């Protein structure tokens, strides 16, 4: 096998195993089903402070619209870590890793970042490879 064929075969294997990561949040890094799960979790755990439409309220900031500008140039891993370390306010870190990832997928959905086929991983190290950039 030539070097090019070997390289292409390796890339195909890694992509098929879900190891390849999207270039940014604009590349469909969560699934629509995951965002739907996240909406239910958001409604149960987050809406009481951040509002039913992520618009904020009662002293809690909006997590839609301009909120994303402060995260541009950072990664989903940083946002995941921040969220897990500080939310919900009455019990930070109290949700499962999957619940935090699902809620993050819902946040991306509401903010019009495109869905893809694969789910957003519930692993902070994997999320650190996905930069937050401005929507096109």
UniProtKB/TrEMBL annotation:
Keywords: Heme, Iron, Metal-binding, Signal. GO terms for molecular function: electron transfer activity; heme binding; metal ion binding. InterPro entries: Cyt_c-like_dom, Cyt_c-like_dom_sf. Gene3D superfamilies: Cytochrome c-like domain. This is Cytochrome c. Residues 1-22 form the signal peptide. Residues 33-111 form the Cytochrome c domain. It comes from the Bacteria.
